[in-house]
């Protein structure tokens, strides 16, 4: 019995010794791992928001996955997330982000850090940093860092620094050529032009934009090509060079619309060019641009509606009242509503008062010259109202009702009436002997081809929109590859 007790005691002692040895070796391994682990980066600035930094890290991971797998949709998603973080970008956050993405001794890191203010505080914030050798210095990361710093400088209204930074980024971009870098480069081109426009030096980069567009066309960089086309059109229209813009569009290589935003901008610029060149029927691209544009872009929607109203009036049409009652647009479209009211009643004096009252608004919108063209249309509208209201009226009464301010109002009224009859504006005859305008009986409009023409135009518009929606459908690349393998 004593022998069994001794054996059991020895067995338990051996188990305790083995357990203690395992715990001891495990603690030693943890100490070795802690000794070899790189210390966390400590950035001494209280303004670094860890949540925003984590979001930027997520953007970097999306760009990395998109670059390795050549998936453009991930780069687009990264750009959308970046725009949501735009209002939260600060100098301290960008400095920490540059240290996270770029090597501290790299040339790009030094250049970008020089544009950021170096303010340090006592409070410390721990930000996990990877080891330097584990950083993947992808070209897309460098472009993205340039883009972030450029957006920050523009938001801070440091336009001279933004011009210098954007110029350096364009020089750095010339050595890169990939589909994912092309998406980031297109965004960088946009802010490159914006920085010079805000600084008032937009004409300086016209030659560079043309060279970049030529290079993008040769290398088949469709994203950059689409963006640069709009930037060049904006550059020409900014200085009222409509003829050069029209010639450039006729010679430029047209690519399939890849970005809905860029396509809406292209339609808007095309509409402005055609409106100035008196091609009012083809200038209805404003309506399509307003419909295709994002609902959050209220400023763009307002500009499209302003020009669309002018085009409708120049065509002799009266816009619907719902155009002026759209949400968040009532105040901005108020001058054009009063302009439409003057056009509807055919009152030249009311048109003159509206033009003087809102002259500053029309000059800012660059529609003053177009409003001058409305004078003839207002006279025609007033003459049409008169011909419908009276079966016979004298030319003197017509000049009085139209409030013509000519030296010989009766003679000029006779010329205006004769031209309106020849152009088909009114259905009437002119009695020169008695000085009368004799209107014919109003016929049924449904007995003519006008309803058929209007209905056909609506059908064509709906079919074109349906076809463009089908062409704009996108599918993930892996699904297409699986389907091709299965077939």
- How much of the sequence lies in strands comes to under 5%
Order of helices and strands: HEHHHHEHHHHHHHHHHHHHEHHEEHH
Strand order of the largest sheet: 3-5-4
Main β-sheet description: 3 strands, antiparallel
Chain-averaged pLDDT: 77
Q: What is the share of helical residues? A: 55-70%
Helix count from the secondary structure assignment: 22
Shape: elongated
Cα-to-Cα separation, first versus last residue? 80 Å
Total strand count, please?
A: 5
Radius of gyration: 34 Å
Unreliable residue stretches: 23-46, 120-135, 479-487
Q: What multimeric state do the chains show?
A: single chain
Quickly give the structural class. Answer: mainly alpha
Describe this structure in a few short sentences.
It contains 22 helices and five strands. It has 487 residues and is mainly α.
